[in-house]
Design a protein that fits this description.
The structure holds two protein chains of two kinds.
Chain A: H1 2-18, E1 24-28, H2 31-41, E2 45-49, H3 64-72, E3 75-78, H4 88-95, E4 107-109, H5 142-159, H6 164-188, E5 196-199, H7 205-211, E6 214-218, H8 229-241, E7 246-250, H9 256-265, E8 269-272, H10 285-301
Parallel strand pairs in A: 1-2, 1-3, 3-4, 5-6, 5-7, 7-8
Chain B: H1 2-23, E1 35-46, E2 68-71, E3 74-81, E4 86-97, E5 100-112, E6 119-127, H2 148-154, E7 159-168, E8 174-182, E9 198-208, E10 213-230, E11 243-263, E12 273-293, E13 298-320, E14 323-334, E15 337-343, H3 347-353, E16 363-374, E17 377-387, E18 393-405
Classes of the chains: A alpha/beta, B mainly beta.
Chain lengths: ~300, ~400
């Protein structure tokens, strides 16, 4: 027992030295918010991203490494709107970290900063895994990202007033770059307007809302429910009378249903990068949108 | 220039406070306050032999499913943040046993929120933080029942009243220390005058091997002193006992290690994932055994010195969405001594009658397959080659678990 105690003291001491942190510690639930934090903070923060582009942010466990990271965080940035409901509340409670508790300035839900689509008055589980607070996948609408960035800049200033001027400058720089990129994207994406596209899961609604794309069908019969053969057959017959130009799915989704439908209908199925890090080229929010639009444009041309 | 940016800053700050108050949403687990959830559990069982664990005095909830159709623990849970300082949870199990509806209070506690410095204090009735499986409610287990070592050592779970202090070390990796001061009245402890003899210590650590795999390991220690511990447990069958056994003026202590490993390709468990877990416990206890044979009106007593150990190892693999298969192996062993017998029995007779002294080592192999149509429902079949008692038996359990209401948390 005593030996064990000594060992623990040594382990603990080692850990203390490792834990030294440079700037504001940021815990980002998803890569898009980690990337945004880096854009807005200009090296004044230490960003840890809890999930990768290959993981479904709804299906994460409050695992030990995440609890340890959460303990050190000064600011938590997540999509929110219940996307992380299965793990984030538990993670925050387990961390005992007073700064990031729900309602504290160190707790930031991106989706709740903007208007959400699909807000429900009443939630019934028979509708699938839907959330009353609306669709949380807001990062694919650049207009909403701009608004979120504005709120986040203000939050950074509030939390770290010593570096306020840096955040202010970085924020303005980002907004300028983002607005000009948005203008380019709009021009480039003009051919996408009015296209009918089949999605795997309802995670593209904000992109479609921005670009005026029509969601032709969803491979999942209900959000979070795996595609069934009967539902896919319904889609096939539906597409006969009202065709679509493309089938899309993201990295963390199984491509079986998309390929099956593609073979039956001769509509091309493409895997799209859903967030930062999904492709080598999608390094940040800017290149992610470039990649996305390129893939969509190639997709509809090949039809 | 400087004044200009200062003004801008102030406006930004003011604006931030306003917009933040209006728009910052909360993840609460539910639209309701408090979050309400209900777990329904239905069972069917087929077997021949009753539950026995030679070498172990049964206690707590240790037992097996009722034969045929039955319902399990239907759990009603209410939880919410009490205020900005505390979180509270209340959890009631409603079951039906031998035609009667019984309610059992499971957890009822409050816990601090963001106390800072990595400290968390919990008070009330709660599942002790020792081991890996102990804090996980039965319906979230990967098998239809608890491992034998949990049945033998803790009467399924160590559910205690008291306070718990946890400290999350400020390390880069996960390292948590916990201590509990509890009543000591729950099995494997027992009634004690001051109702405060339970002591628990545990330490947990863990991390990621890679993006695809992570682990957690723990060490635990528990001890309690008691005036009286009644044996017999929760075993189904006879209504009035033919025999009684209890341990007086006893002391028990348990040490344990646990290890969990999880794997999923790219850390995305949706398609395939694997979970392996192992726990080992060692129990050392002593006291005075009192045995009564109600049929022949004979009583006897002896000094009891118990040394017991047990482990389980299990693996659960999801090979395609919704479908999982699991294999579990249980093993227990005991080396108990009875001495200085007085009354109507010799040491050997007492050892045999109470099944505390035995050459038998309980073993069990379980195979389970479950199908989960969604995150909220699960159907399971479990087959067991059960050598926990002296007569080998084949047992089959069928089970469904449905969860209604607020979204549960995915604990590691």
């Amino acid at each position: 027992m005593k030996k064990l105690g000594n060992l623990l003291v040594v382990i603990l001491a080692l850990g203390f030295f490792n834990a030294a942190q440079a700037g504001l510690g940021i815990f980002a639930c998803e890569p898009e918010w980690g990337s945004l934090a880096n854009e807005l903070a200009g090296g004044k923060v230490d960003v840890y991203t809890a999930t990768t582009a290959f993981q479904d942010p709804h299906r994460i466990e409050a695992r030990p490494s995440l609890i340890a990271k959460m303990r050190h965080a000064d600011l938590v940035i997540c999509s929110g709107a219940d996307l992380e409901v299965g793990w984030l509340p538990l993670l925050i409670r387990s961390s005992a970290n007073s700064k990031v508790q729900i309602g504290q300035p160190g707790y930031f839900e991106a989706a709740m900063q903007v208007e959400r689509l699909g807000v429900l008055e009443k939630v019934d589980r028979a509708m699938g895994d839907v959330h009353g607070k609306g669709n949380p996948h807001v990062h694919l609408d650049p207009r909403r990202v701009a608004a979120i960035a504005k709120s986040l800049t203000q939050r950074l200033i509030e939390l770290d007033p010593a570096n306020a001027s840096v955040y202010q400058q970085q924020g303005e720089k980002f907004q300028t770059r983002w607005q000009s990129a948005m203008a380019q994207w709009r021009t480039k994406a003009a051919p996408l307007k009015g296209q009918r596209i089949v999605v795997h899961h309802k995670d593209w609604v904000y992109l479609f809302d921005w670009l005026g794309i029509e969601e032709a069908a969803s491979l999942e019969p209900k959000p979070g429910v795996s595609p069934s053969t009967s539902h896919l057959a319904d889609i096939v017959s539906g597409l006969k009378s009202n065709p679509a130009t493309l089938i899309i799915y993201s990295n963390y989704q199984d491509d079986k249903a998309a390929r099956w439908l593609s073979a039956r209908t001769n509509i091309q199925a493409v895997q799209l990068p859903f967030t930062v890090g999904a492709h080598d080229q999608a390094r940040d929010l800017f290149s992610l949108m470039d990649e996305l639009l390129d893939a969509l444009l190639i997709g509809i041309q090949q039809k | 220039m400087k004044t200009h940016s200062l003004v801008m800053l102030t406006t930004a700050l003011l604006a931030s406070e306003i917009s933040y108050a209006q728009s910052s949403g909360r993840i609460s687990g539910s639209e309701f306050n408090p979050a309400l959830s209900l777990v329904l559990e239905g069972r069917y069982a087929d077997y021949n032999e009753d539950f026995e664990l030679p070498g172990f005095q049964l206690g707590g909830e240790a037992g097996i499913y009722e034969k045929g159709f039955s319902i399990g623990h239907n759990e009603l849970t209410l939880s919410a943040n009490v205020d900005d300082k505390f979180y509270g949870l209340f959890n009631l199990a409603i079951a039906s046993e031998a035609g009667e509806t019984v309610t059992e209070l499971e957890e009822a506690y409050i816990e601090t929120l963001g106390l800072g410095k990595g400290l968390t204090v919990k008070g009330g009735q709660f599942y002790s933080g020792l081991g890996y499986l102990n804090t996980i409610h039965d319906h979230a287990h990967d098998f239809a029942d608890v491992p034998l070592v949990y049945a033998a050592m803790f009467g399924n779970h160590l559910l205690e009243k008291g306070i718990q202090l946890r400290w999350l070390a400020p390390t880069d990796f996960f390292l948590e220390f916990g201590a509990e001061l509890t009543s000591g009245a729950e099995f494997p402890g027992g009634e004690n005058e001051d109702n405060n003899t339970g002591r628990t210590l545990f330490v947990k650590t863990g991390g990621d091997f890679s993006v695809s795999s992570s682990w957690q390991a723990g060490l635990s220690y528990y001890t309690a002193e008691f005036d009286l511990r009644e044996g017999g447990g929760h075993a189904h069958g006879g209504a009035t006992a033919d025999t009684d056994q209890e341990i007086l003026d006893g002391k028990t202590s348990i040490s344990g290690i646990d290890f969990v490993y999880k794997w999923a390709p790219n850390g995305n468990p949706a398609q395939r994932n694997l979970k392996i877990q192992f726990e080992y416990f060692l129990r050392d206890e002593e006291g005075q055994l009192e045995y009564t044979d109600n049929i022949n009106s004979l009583t006897g007593s002896a000094d009891y010195d118990g040394d017991q150990s047990g482990f389980y190892i299990q693996g659960v693999y999801q090979w395609m969405p919704h479908w999982r298969a699991g294999l579990r192996y249980d093993h227990l062993s005991s080396d108990n001594q009875l001495s200085n017998a007085v009354g109507g029995f010799t040491n050997d007779e007492l050892g045999e009658a109470t099944e505390l002294v035995t050459g038998h080592t309980p073993k069990r192999t379980s195979l389970m397959i479950d199908y989960s149509p969604s995150e909220f429902s699960r159907f399971r079949i479990q087959y067991m080659k059960d050598d926990s008692g002296e007569v080998s038996d084949d047992r089959i359990y069928l089970q469904f678990i449905a969860s209604l209401g607020s979204h549960g948390a995915h604990k590691f």
